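Incident review: delayed structure delivery

Summary: a single-chain prediction request sat in the queue longer than the usual turnaround. Root cause was a stuck worker, restarted by the on-call engineer. No data loss occurred. The affected request and its eventual output are reproduced below so the record is complete for anyone auditing the incident later.

Affected input:
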Amino acid sequence: MNSKIYIHEYIDIIGANRANYFKHMTTDWGRHSAERLQKCFGVWGTLGSTGRWPQVVNLWEYEDWDSLAASFAHETGTDTMQDKALEMWWLTAQNYRSGGLDRLLIAAPYSPDIEQLCADGSVVGAKVFLHETVNIKPGLAQDYLRLVSEHWLGQAMELGLQLVGAFRTAMRNDSEVVLIWAMRDWSDWARVGMAEDGEPFRTWRARTKDIAIDWVGHLMCSAPASPLKTGVQP
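Output delivered after worker restart:
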């Protein structure tokens, strides 16, 4: 059962600096993760033809709320709300990114953590990932995640979609779900795309039409040192 908490980050990249930011956020950041009681779950680049560009998506895993609170306390322990030990890291990062948008995510009980994903290996090295944000009627995000588990996971796997993460967004009215799926190759994505107007998507959307208001997806590819690319922490 996954009871972990996650920080999800959308990062706006400056110009052609996505590769530089990939390295800065994985290889150059890795040693700081332990100080923040976090693990890197994934770092991806958004495929611009399907979403905002240039953009990077980061996902960080924390053991529980206490671990996240300790990380926040460490981060905000100065008047600048930035760790002094990371001053040079922040100064370098500002050359690569202009800002971003974060959210806190609560894992569904059946959502795998990063150790499980790396040990299993079935999604490590996947060529493409589908990121879905689902707007839910207030108060029903957990119900939607239950329906995903009971009625969609099996169908999705038959299509070639392997679950990477299923989450609800914290600090909201239980009204947003984030789903991340892996596809081994681009041909798997093409097969999913061709199936969207038919079954089993039609039945799934009919089943959830009274809960899900809308959803939007975009495609992502792993950064070179992301654990879902290499199978190990950066």
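Verification: The mean pLDDT is 95.
Action items: add queue-age alerting; document worker restart procedure.
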